[in-house]
Amino acid sequence: MTYADPASFYSPADPLLAMGAPERVNYATGVLLQAEDFRDEQTYHRARLAKALANALGHGTLAGLAVRAPEAEDNELHLRVEPGLALDRHGRLIELGEAWCTRLSRWFAAQTTPMLRSAMHKKPRTALPLAVVADLFLSQADCARGKTPSFAQGPFDALDALVPARLAELPNLDLVLRAEGPPAPLPAPHNYWPEASASADDRLAAVLGSYGLGHGEGIDGGLEPLEEHVEGRDPGAVLLARVAIPVTLADGAAPAVRPVLDLSRRVLVDNAIRPFIYLAGKWLGAAPRTVPVREP
Questions:
Q1: Residues 188-224: tens digit of each pLDDT
Q2: Would you kindly state where each structural domain of the chain is located, as residue ranges?
Q3: Under 8 Å CB-to-CB from 139, ≥6 apart: which residues?
Q4: Is the pTM higher than 0.85?
Q5: Other C-beta atoms lying within 10 Å of the C-beta of residue 59
Q6: How is residue 42 annotated by DSSP?
């Protein structure tokens, strides 16, 4: 479930994710500049911006990205994500410039029976009598674009080596089965940041205690997963919605029996569990569109 072209993922890892203490390139006349110097210069500015955004705004949906449930009588079960913008836990802006769609029926068919069985939930854990539950996450993928000649890198000897000409920052959408068993994990039940009307002492206490939250120890500590993140997946990804897919399965069915899609019921989509960033007084110049939080 990747919006970016999987064939273009032959690109270097994002250096922003493994950056230590900030260092600026020290330019001087006569110094020979290498590709590493330009990369470090770019990473410095990206990292400073990401640090500022993550600490000023947190993470979550900034605008758009509503997940829409399949229409009634849609046997292919088209799940749709509207265009929008989010801030991931690394502080990177991720933009989905056009609507994205997948057919849940085909995604369901590609899953193994044990995984589907482990992600099944019944009432009251879900509003459906029986459903396979999955969460939709958004993250960033750096994708190689174009080719340009370069000197060969590593233990190679070639005059016609090529490297990507550009690295496109593209959104990556991942529908992850909640196989932890009921109840499926949810994000923190409330925002711990104090309201604007809180006392000055409460606001100051929040500022004093907020540095490095969710990170490992040290300035280059990695991200620690939150409640909603799945083990082995990107802990910087942003949760968009929980999707409950109606299925049928006989009581006492053997472990090898596969659940079957129940097309007589609608897929449920819950956008309300996502983290989002809301700033009071923001001026848009036009009224926001009306979008349901839960469907149907």
A1: 777 889 988 999 999 999 999 999 888 876 666 689 9
A2: 6-19+29-282+291-295
A3: 88, 94, 171, 172, 174, 234, 236, 237, 238
A4: yes
A5: 23
A6: H
